[in-house]
Amino acid sequence: MLNNCSLFGAIFALLSALSCCSLAQDIIGCGGFVKSEVEIVFSLIEVKLYTRQGSLKYQTDCAPNNGYYMIPVYDKGDYTIRVEPPPGWTFEPQSVELHIDGQNDLCSKGEDINFQFTGFGVIGKVISQGQSSGPAGVTLTLKKLVGEETVKSTTSVDDGAFTFERVLPGEYFIEASHSVWKFEKSMVQVKVGRETGDAGSDLKLMGYDVQGSVLSEGEPVAGVYFLLFSSTVNPKIVKSCEQGDVAGMPHREGEFMICFVKSQKDGSFIFPAIPTGSYTLVPFYRGDNIFFDVQPQQLSFSVEQDSVLFKEPFVVAGFTVNGRVLTSPNGQGVASARVLVNGHEQAVTSADGTYRLDSMRPETYTIEVQSELIFFDPVEVKISPSAPQLPDVTASRFSVCGHVIIDRLPEGMGHSTQSRKVQVESAKTGIITTGTDGEGNFCFRLPAGTYAIKVMLSSAEEKAGLRVAPDVIDFTVKDQPLDHIKFSQFRATVSGSVECTEGCGSLHLSITSLGRSEERRVVMTSEDENGKTKFSFDNIMPGKYKVNLMNEEWCWEEKAKDIEVVDQNLNAILFRQSGYILSCHLSHDITLNFAQESKPGNVGSFNLTKGVNKFCLKEPGVYKLTPVSCHQFEQETYAYDTVHPSQLSMNAVRHRVEGRIVTQESASSIMVSVKSSLSPDLPPSVIGPLKSDKDVPAIKDPKPKTPVSGPFTYKYLYWAKIGEKLEVSASSKELLFYPETVEMTIMGDACPGDVDEIIGKRGVFIDGLVTPALADVAVTIAAKGSEDNKIEVTSDAKGSYRVGPLHSHTEYDVSAVKEGYVLTAIEGKQGQFRAFKLGQISVTVTDQAGQPLPGVLLSLSGGNYRSNQVTSDQGAMTFSSLSPGQYFLRPMMKEYSFEPTSQMTEVLEGTTGSIAISGVRVAFSCYGSVTSLNGEPEAGVYVEVVGLHKCSSSQEESKTEPDGSFRIRGLQPNCAYNIRLKAGEANQHIERSVPKSRILHVKNEDMTDVHMIAFRRMNQLDLSGNIIGSEQHLNTLKVHLYRESNPDAPIHTVSLGSTNFFYLPSLTVDNQNYVVRLDSTLQRSAYEYNLSEFTFTANTTYQHFTFEFSPQRKPIEQELSQSSFLVLPITLLVIFISYNYQKILPMFSQSAASLQSLMSPSKPSTVHQSSNQDQYDADFIAELTSVSKKKGKVRKA
User: Does the keyword Acyltransferase apply (predicted)?
Assistant: First the structure.
């Protein structure tokens, strides 16, 4: 007993220690305390988790009794935990930076992260009139209420909020001030006690100044009215400018007149205090009977939370005159006409033909009007301020347009002319002729009157039968353009009928020209009043054609007919049906039996082959088709109806597989499991129980039965698919089978045949017991020394269990576990255990539909015990091995809220406490992946979603896993988000993505399959170049690459050899400056030449350089003068060679051959003088070799 108690205590201590730092799978808990030496309200304090980029990932409040908090972290990475109390409260530290890697950080090690409270504050807000927020930049001074001693000063931030930190308890007042802005209320009192003092939003600004100026030819103008309008601001709240009407001022639809000011002598104007809102500023300046233009004529602007200054002045530009454009005197106005003044467009007419010319000055102008279909003569007018009305401009001519349609000339006429003449005639204008364009369109510009128009045809065209209808068209031009005149070519109609056995329905026929490349035309049949099936082709040109009946389901006496169209319609073409086509596509060879349902005697069969089989059925009706084969088809029988013809497809879906099991003993519980490769995630198919070949029906017989002896054979049948791989195994309550599995793959068109034979043999059993009786104990049986093929069972209500059959020649280890219990094996009794129970808490979490909610993080703490665990797929979690005491439980799961949010519970020894928690889904997730263009996963890429519209304050992000997948949690329902790869330092290695971004519309469900392709930044610069000049000196050239900072030490050197093209080794894109320099070994004494160089920055992926090298030989006189000194030595050398030529000539020949081989060009060589020798790209070497070979061929020629 003592040994059992010691074991119990040791195990309890171990479990308690492990649970303190235990973390849920894939979730890391970050927790600790908010501490204070004075009494504060912990429930007002929030602790938030941010990413290093500033995105909020999770937030929680503190436990009201002790300030404890717990934050679940779903993704490893860099984070910041920040305490966020009410405004004005201060803590040390304010935040803690974390690099969560699952091992070495504070959270992964289970250590507390604590925040210490250090003081209260005073908060408040300066607001703009009519707004809930205010501007930045207002000076706030905190003064003692008694004595008015200044305590602190600060400045408001963007929304007008301000904070005074670390303020002692007492009574104060706050004074607001600004150098320009006027206040409606500038002081407020505040009291600081045991919490932050709140000054509220009583400090209120009256408005903001709006300033500008007005000039005329660079000089200031006084007395110009500036009228302020708004559709949203109430004029009654504006008190800083003059209100009322100005004589002759313009009225604006939908806007209120707020107030106005006048410009001063210096041309400036100012509205001292205008509330926030949207406004329109209209300048207004007029004299007697004339309106002067001030530009711009209106200016829309908004007053936000700051002063408004118009940097560009208003300008007095000129005066305004009006005019009209009409179709005729007293006629309609011409809309959208362009009005040109002295050749420059100045206005466009409105719907009634009126227009206005702004910024005009006294002088004579030429006015031209341009309209698309109406034409006008230029008009000269004199404009002055005393005559601001212009004379009417009326139309002189109108556009008359039409179309001549001649698709094709008759046979033998050749090609159609590009243009045809069209003639129009009237008593007013006489005869006017024009030509059509390439499309057959024509147009005239005609004054008002009555006309006759016709198309001119040549005598040859008329003789060949070309006709245009109508011959002549009469029309009248009044005051509008005409565009409906149309001439078309004569065409014939080809028609006929179709006779069918049982009604034709809708059939299609085509007509195709013979001898001409005309497009084929298709029509559909219709029934006339007598029920006959008719067809008709319209607009047929004369010529020979083939009419084809487009029906592949029926048989016909003639399916196509040849016809010829001459000069009249054809209407007697007849097609007659002769039967029905049966088309059958087979996946395997079969015998097909068929019978006609309406005629039982009409029975037959066909031996059909794999593929498509076609034959004609004379009788209409429904046929029953039955395939006979060793294959199983999609249907046992097929029906074919001649009324609804279609190709019949018969595909074998399964194929017969047979197998057998042989045993020496009879067994009634043999089952066969067939695992298919086509459904690896589904349970195997089960066949059985099987009967042996020696099983006989029970017969009443008084004679004693002779015992039946083995062997016994059990057969089974399975239908498999082509390509399916089968794993067949057998099972029984009494037997074991060898081999354990047999495999077979179904291939080919023939029947698969038999599966390998399986042999059954009798096994052994283990009977176990748990005392005291305890149900649901998990018992594991495994062969000694092996972790494979474990068998797991659970005990029943009596604590007993049975395992078998097992292999008789193998020894087994038996172990048992149950959460909340310690189970020890009873020595000498295999499979028997004694159970001891600890205290535990059982938690069940369900969703709003009452279904189990898995994956919820449950944080349980009490005394020295802490544990963070997630609920199972059944929504349950049991905290076992708990010592007696009180425990605090908090459920946490991103995207869910819970009721209750936390709970205190007490645990007694050996008891189980139950807690039920309900969760409600309040947010959703986005699942997706990021890959490269070739489909490889991109790990470590940050993906973010940013809320749009009403959800613009929402932002979430995630980092991709090694397989490129990501999950972004916390998306709010009924929100739209923009998903993209995060910009900035987070993804420095990513250049762009496809798509760049995508809009997600979140409903009440998760979003899946969001895929993005990431493109990495290129980090290599390739260098190439070429030489322009004579090729005979290329072998004297070298190209050097230097760093600009070290021009004396080349990084790389390339010799040109025989090609004028070169490559340099690649550089890293490092934004450094480099120099490429050309060098030659030619003697300066013999040649004159220039060597160039290029400087570049390594900030792109490719650079190419072109050098010019054209050396010039120096004058011959200089060469002769230099070579004259060599005449005597050369003469002596020639005399010596002539006397000894038999010895010298062979040596000379050998040396010449060696020299030639050395000078023979191949490919350029490269000298690497840098310590980090780069290798040439294989493509560059191949191209360089190709260029060298080509050059060699040219030189040989």
Answer: no
